[in-house]
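Interim report, section 4.2 (structural modelling).
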Amino acid sequence: MKVSVYVTLKNGVLDPQGKAIHHALEGLGFRGVNDVRVGKLIELDVDEAVAQAEIEEMCRKLLANMVIENFRIERQGQTTGHPAGQPA
Amino acid sequence: MNSAVVVFPGSNCDRDMAEAIRIASGKAPQMVWHRESELPSGLDFIAIPGGFSYGDYLRCGAMAAQSPVMRSVKSAAERGVPVLGVCNGFQILTEAGLLPGALMRNAGINFICRDVALKVENSQSIFTSRYDNGAEIVIPVAHHDGNYQADEATLDRLEGEGRVAFRYVEECNGSARNIAGILNEGGNVLGMMPHPERMVEEAHGRSDGRRLFEGLLDAVSTTNGHSRMAVS
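Predicted structure of the assembly:
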């Protein structure tokens, strides 16, 4: 089963890469871009037996750094996650 | 002083670290490969060197923090063994949960490689006892991800408990409150982005970093019940 894990920076965490990309888009003449934030998409292929709680544990322990990042899990069309993940 | 330098695939400051320890203490450290699940017994000091462990995959230090050897480093740190993480070593210690906060991409995007002035904010720690409180020292930085961030409550706590060991005198990489190095709650774990091991002999231009290792040697010698003279 395919599971997509989206890892994004928490609100308020400065994203220098996003800022640089934003500047580059403006340099290319694109108007109307208000902000750019860079995140990661991690695709997992897991057995059906792997519980949601276990995937969340994978995110907390390794895939995301809960100090600065949130994660969102998309599993067979469902979306779950912790957009307001607790700071460590 | 019985010491060890942990080596990960992609570490590149491990030998500089070993040489700095040898120069300051007179005894070369043991080099410990990351796959080892046990550290050598009787260690007085563990260093986690700089570099690009695991090619900085996922996040700087994230993969190294999960290596077998880090479980032993964690338990040694919990027993009070001094642990120093420099640059990638600092990143690894935060990823391993031994130090709070995170090191993000430098605010100006660029890799920064130059000498920087640091203020010694706490000269009472086992790592900083050879510096005067408030002294300005010069130590080089070489990093892309040294932008220290933590939530305000954590930053306040670090400041209030004297756990900010070093601060950049001038803004360097966007770090919150210009923090360059922090201590854990027990004071036996220090993480810092600047490289003290690159400033240990006159040929380096200055030797400001050497006093960090010498201070540590003092602390270890006292703990082991030897006089400083007997060791040096």
